[in-house]
Amino acid sequence: AMGHYGGLYRFVAMLPVLGSFRCPARHLVLFQFAAAMVSALALARLAQGTPDRRTKPVLWAIGIAAWTTLLLVWCLRNLGTPELSDAFTTHWGQLLVGPALITLAIILVSLAPRFRQGIVAALLLFATIDAATYAIPFVWQHQPQSSSYDALQSALAQELPDDPAFQAFEGEYRAHGNWRVARLSQLGLSSYMGYVGLPPAWSLDPDAEVTKRLAGVRWEKQPLAARSWTLREDALPMARLVSRTVLSYPPREDIEAIDVATTALVMKPIDLLETTPGTLTWTRNEPGKVAWDALTPNDQLLVFAQRFHPGWQAHVDGTRREVLRVNGDFMGCVVPPGEHKVTFEFAPKSFRWGRAISLLGFLLTVGIWCALVRRDRRKYSSPSPVVHKVQ
Predict the structure, then answer these.
(1) Rounded CA gap, 54 and 173, in Å?
(2) Could you tell me where the DSSP H helices lie in the chain?
């Protein structure tokens, strides 16, 4: 309904605040809020009085529409294109679950005039069981596992690459593979594409070998569903120093024409003296905050193979430095000569605003609660007025 063919997505994108959510998040938020409000109104009506005569025809229409979907599925699967035919399950038992649950809910609502209070409780129990039975089987099929290093290493022993650099990870390289990479990240690995619902936009070609090299991909599965790992010997460290830059925009064409091990593409001119690159030593590697000890003979560019975002801040010995877009998709900063401590921290304004608004909401909630409690105490503690009857 809200997709490309429904046409409603254009109007949803215009809604204040909600329109800033990326699709399909805005559709999910809109549907959940709407469903919550409609459910609250319906429960309030059921709890306060008998539904009017218009309720029954609406309930019948909902029930008929639910069972009509089975006919629509049959038509699309047998008369539609091969793409539509493959989109539907062949198990009719699974298709019957939805209309059956809707029918049960209709029966409960229809009984509300006779058993008003009991039906409201039954509907709440029905909704709870419906949500629980959707999630609990997943837990049964995927038992929780320990997140300790030894437990994960034992569980994935058959898939771990036979590479000493894998065991002694210090923030140098990344992995690129199937969904198990999310679990491998608990061992200290960084995923190439990141654990995201939607792939981010790239200035470079994310499938190009040079892009993977720049991102520090040392372990890769080709295809992604394969069990064996491919070791990439030419992977560049995720953080390094270079003394040569080339002005380029856009970088997709120019990246193939340079030696990415010694040169970086930048979007603004940087005055560097081409000398031997300095050294970097990782001192901290946490989500959103990394640090190195740098030793450079002259001004050099620290290239950090993390996706560029304006929310990142760079500091050299505590002094703020400009975060530059490097090689199209990554970032870096200029490090002066000598020994320095360099840190990168993800601290966007949106996070600070969100933290402040959340704190304000918490304080308002506590304040309102205290005011209501105080009002109720005054109400019930004040003596009743004495009325004297005049003869």
Answers:
(1) 65
(2) 9-12, 25-48, 55-79, 82-87, 92-110, 116-141, 149-155, 164-167, 181-184, 209-214, 251-254, 349-381
Query: Interior CA angle at 187 toward 315 and 166, to 5°?
Result: 90
Distances (CA, A) of 209 to 228, 248, 265, 347: 19, 19, 17, 31
User: Of how many residues is the chain composed?
Assistant: 391
If you search the block for the tokens 């805005």, which residue do you land on?
26
Q: Could you tell me which residues are beta bridge partners of residue 345?
A: 289, 313
Are the CB atoms for 219 and 233 separated by under 8 Å? Answer: no
The answer to whether 306 and 331 are in contact (CB under 8 A) is yes
CB 321 within 8 A of CB 315: yes
In order along its 391 residues, the chain shows pLDDT tens digits of 676 677 777 788 888 888 888 777 888 888 888 988 998 888 888 777 655 677 788 888 999 999 998 888 888 777 766 666 666 666 777 888 889 999 999 888 888 877 777 888 888 899 888 888 877 877 777 666 666 777 777 777 777 778 877 775 667 888 887 656 667 677 777 888 765 566 678 999 998 999 999 999 998 887 777 777 888 889 999 999 999 999 998 899 999 999 999 999 999 999 999 999 999 999 998 888 999 999 999 999 999 999 999 999 999 999 999 999 999 999 999 999 999 999 999 999 888 899 999 999 999 999 999 998 888 787 767 665 555 556 5
Residues whose CB falls within 8 Å of the CB of residue 378, separated by 6 or more in sequence, listed in order: none
Contacts of 29 (CB under 8 A, 6+ apart): 18, 21
pTM above 0.85, yes or no: no
Task: Yes or no: say if 23 and 89 are a contact pair by the CB < 8 Å rule.
Answer: no
φ/ψ (deg, to 5) at 56? -60, -45
Angle at 208 between CA 205 and CA 210, to 5 degrees: 105
193 three-state secondary structure: coil
Distance CA 360, CA 349 (A): 16
Rounded CA Rg of the chain? 30
CA distances from 2 to 18, 19, 23, 98, 390 (A): 14, 13, 10, 20, 73
Using CA atoms of 301, 303, 307, 308 in order, give the dihedral in degrees to the nearest 10.
0
